[in-house]
UniProtKB/TrEMBL annotation:
<dbReference type="InterPro" id="IPR036010">
    <property type="entry name" value="2Fe-2S_ferredoxin-like_sf"/>
</dbReference>
<protein>
    <submittedName>
        <fullName>2Fe-2S iron-sulfur cluster protein</fullName>
    </submittedName>
</protein>
<dbReference type="GO" id="GO:0051536">
    <property type="term" value="F:iron-sulfur cluster binding"/>
</dbReference>
<dbReference type="InterPro" id="IPR042204">
    <property type="entry name" value="2Fe-2S-bd_N"/>
</dbReference>
<keyword id="KW-0560">Oxidoreductase</keyword>
<dbReference type="GO" id="GO:0016491">
    <property type="term" value="F:oxidoreductase activity"/>
</dbReference>
<dbReference type="Pfam" id="PF13510">
    <property type="entry name" value="Fer2_4"/>
</dbReference>
<feature type="region of interest" description="Disordered">
    <location>
        <begin position="1"/>
        <end position="27"/>
    </location>
</feature>
Amino acid sequence: MSARAADPSRDPSRPGPTTPVTITVDGEPVTGVLGQSLAGVVMASGRTAWRTTAAGRAPRGLFCGIGVCFDCLVTVDGVRDVRACQRRAVEGAVVTTQAEALPTRVTSDVRAGEVDDA
Ligand code: FES
């Protein structure tokens, strides 16, 4: 150990001042901290699920938190299927939750370019 004491105010591992950001989630303003993931901001607002699955409408939110499972998908500024755990919150981001629709059945008529009304 060094005989000299380090100045704690110059310790680079200490967090610096934070910058608040406000995003909207389904039209509701939510405040977070610049650099925080969208998932972190959304969860801090009290939501634990923000997507439903196509089969069974099961709720989904943060699962892996590292960009692997795709459970945390949201729409950000009109772009679908953004992983909330991988996107940093920026001021004014517009986040909407997603509800997956079951894929429509593809018939031979649809494949031929005709609409399936059934
Ligand atoms: S929580 Fe798994 S990809 Fe985001």
